[in-house]
Amino acid sequence: MRRNVSKSLMLVLLTVPMILTGCAADKYVIKEKVESGKPPIESSVEERGDIVDGGALEKKEKEYRPIYAGSVVTTQFSEVLKLDENEGPVGSYTFPENSTYAFENGGYVYYATWKSDSDTYGYDVKRKDLSSGNEEFICDVPGVRSLDVYNGYVFVRSYSYDDAKYNERKFDVNTLEELPNDANNALFDTIGDKSTCSDLGGRESCLDRLMDEVGFIAAYDYKESRVTCKAKNAEDVAVYDLENSYEIYAYDKYDLVYSASVEDENDYWAKNLMMLDLQGDATFVIAERFNSFLDYANGKIYYSMIDESEFGLEEYEVHSFDTETKVDSVLYKQKKHPGMPIYGPGICDFKVLNKNIYFLSDDGNEVFWYTIPSDSDAKVTPERTDIALAKSNAPKGVTIEGISETRLCDKCGEPLVQAYSDYPVFDLKLYDETVYAKINDYLKKEAKSRVELALSSDEYVDESDGSCEGHGTVSYKVTDEYELHDIRDVASGYITVEYDGYWYAGGAHGMPLYIYYLFDKSTGDEVTLKDLYKGSEEDFKKLVANATLKYSETFSDDNYPFFNSGQDLYDSAYEYSSLESAIIWENDGIKVVFDPYALGPYAAGPIEIAISYKDLGIEGYFK
Predict the structure, then answer these.
(1) Could you read off the pLDDT of 375-413 as tens digits, one per residue?
(2) H helices of 171-297, where?
């Protein structure tokens, strides 16, 4: 809700050095908005392509900052797409997995890697020489917020959850020697624990760059739905209320891009894409219930809408919104294909780099970098580059199909349950028809059964009151989704088919799901642990509990993934294991999979307990 606070109108004159544009220093005004209950002007772009009257917008030519160029980074596939000076792709380079905030500058890739194998919580910040492959350590931090190289320095911004403070460390770009950064950190101290939006041209920036190129720091207080634009060495600041604001995405001297929550009991995550004109003091609804913000560059806001009529096979529609003309344009559409290892075709790793826009998509078989001209203001066909990053989850000779179903409320027509499942289809020209026709039929029936079961469940859906306000016990549509993870041989006589799933019915998060099949390659029949293990259910539960207890001893106190230890852990593992537990089949043994909350917190993820075929007494089947 908006807070109405009586304050005088303040004008803060800021001198902004236009260092990178080659222009003379420019003076402009930031003013505190009069908090009168709602913004002075509020307009909505409802008909795409129409120009909305800006009212208080100052009609003057805008000069935008240059955009970072030279590379595009995807942390999903740990790849850097290297571009030449004409911005054509010339190759790609890898950096370590579990990395984030990666970017290329001056022949180096700078990145922060989660300490997954360490007893110490946090990230290691490093850089990799793309010519030699050598890596250099820069520092470690508890939580990374941004990396930047500017004016001969490397800046590492971090956040400490212990004292709720931001900090920015400064290093010489040549020697990596740490240098004092007192002025910037003093500014952070005045901001406190508020979030600092720093996304400029597709990558977060250090405070020095923000001050030089924009003239102020925008600090967001999500509790108060308020942005404070604070200038360096200036006591007076500009304050803007952003009603129901959810997140700030980007800003420059002219505009600030953010999202605002939609009050809807049936769609908790619904939000509108908004723009605050800092010069004209006006807010605009760019898109209602949009999918995701993509980038802000050269006065254009890029975002996506999503068509979920086929759940699990969604289609993404990419738009650009011109902040000067207020014209919204659809650029292209990309549909999700079954079995592709990419979370959002057409929007994944979307970046604007001067002449071109780059993003990841796929052709149904492989993931590629695609591109369109950045000056496009009408629908275009994306051009595929020659640089591929990943193949389908299915091996050669296997295609993936999908089943998608939605259950609608019979009173209001809103989706109540949406379910989707992949299933693989083995090419019978390449595989033994007698065996694999049986496997094909079985897996298709299993996928269909999963979807039907999800749609028929009334555990989280209650329409009995007829009001359609939250549909009884559920305040968000239930989704149940399964995607093929892997198909591989196990030893010499078996093949395993693995699924990852995710179930959601409202709340902070859903629950991951796992399904693992094992098939006899000579018959096509499914094989379960019950078919092979000669011991009793009691014997198996004791075996798993003892293996869990032994596994727990390999952890230190700092990274202990379990709720309990000793006898309590043994008892929990005993209780939650059975011969029907989710089982990962490998060449030398199995892994019993425990869901989150069974043995440890949600953050620990699924816990896998390894047991050899020898300990199970079934090694003879896997020779």
Answers:
(1) 888 899 999 998 888 899 889 999 999 999 998 877 777
(2) 182-191, 207-213
